[in-house]
Specification:
Shape: globular
Number of strands: 7
Order of helices and strands: EHEHEHEHEHEHHE
Strand content: 15-25%
Number of helices: 7
GO molecular function: 3-oxoacyl-[acyl-carrier-protein] reductase (NADPH) activity
CATH topology: Rossmann fold
Pfam family, one: adh_short
Protein name: 3-oxoacyl-(Acyl-carrier protein) reductase
Structural class: alpha/beta
CATH class: Alpha Beta
EC number: 1.1.1.100
InterPro entries: NAD(P)-bd_dom_sf, Sc_DH/Rdtase_CS, SDR, SDR_fam
CATH architecture: 3-Layer(aba) Sandwich
CATH superfamily: NAD(P)-binding Rossmann-like Domain
Largest sheet: 7 strands, parallel
Length: about 240
């Protein structure tokens, strides 16, 4: 049985990832932090549709200490795919930012995913094939004013994936980043309708992405036949910015 863990499974993109992977025959750990009801409802929905697969909600706080991260990984059944779809941002000038919030953002978006990758590596190496996919951002390649720390974390994921992929390529473990552009998620709900329309007019395909536009490419990367693609950042932006 092929099994994946989706970190941030209750987000807009995370839910689409879970639905696409379940349709492709994957059993799933659905990670969440605070949205327990959303996670349980998604598990029930997937199990009703795919009763021969396993779907397990699992709670973890990305602000936890190293000992708790190690314990979290040790309690998992073997997985051969890991998708990091969690992420947070703060919108504003760096000079106005609280130092604690900067640390939190870097921790959730970059530091903990790297630590979890290190902890998960031994069991991923044991599989016939295994996959790691990080959810980056167009702003990792084209820095966004008022989201400078967020841009730094997403750019950091791309450089980490590029380097780490070279370390593990001979073990049938691929490491890639899917970097969305403007996506209709709760993270972007802070923007006014006028701002949303202005951004949409800048996107060549003429619309914001939805979760399925992003999850499709993650499903492709998890296919066993994708073993020659590693260390890459794939920008899924509708032609916007990059």
């Amino acid at each position: 049985m092929k099994r994946a863990i989706v970190f941030g499974a209750t987000g807009g993109i995370g839910q689409a990832i879970c639905q696409d992977l379940a349709e492709s025959g994957w059993s799933l750990y659905l990670h969440y932090n605070s949205k327990e009801k959303t996670a349980e409802e998604l598990v029930q929905k997937l199990f009703a549709k795919y009763p021969k697969q396993d779907f397990m909600p699992i709670k973890s706080n990305f602000e936890t200490d190293d000992a708790q991260l190690s314990k979290f990984v040790k309690n998992l059944l073997p997985v051969n795919a890991v998708i990091f779809a969690q992420g947070v941002t703060n919108y504003g000038f760096l000079g106005d930012e609280d130092l604690e919030n900067i640390t939190r953002l870097i921790n959730i978006n970059l530091t903990v995913p790297i630590k979890l990758t290190k902890l998960l590596e031994p069991q991923l190496m044991k599989q016939d094939f295994s996959r790691i996919v990080y959810l980056g951002s167009v702003y990792g390649g084209y820095g966004s004013a008022l989201e400078s720390v967020y841009s730094a974390t997403k750019g950091g994921l791309s450089r980490f994936a590029q380097a780490y992929a070279r370390e593990v390529a001979s073990n049938n473990l691929t490491v890639n980043v899917i970097a969305p552009g403007a996506v209709k998620t709760s993270m972007n709900s802070i923007f006014s309708e006028d701002t949303i329309q202005e951004v949409q007019e800048e996107i060549p395909v003429g619309r914001w992405a939805d979760g399925k536009d992003i999850s499709y490419w993650i499903k492709v990367l998890l296919d066993k036949r994708s073993n020659y693609l590693t260390g890459q950042t794939i920008y899924v932006t509708g032609g916007w910015l990059l």
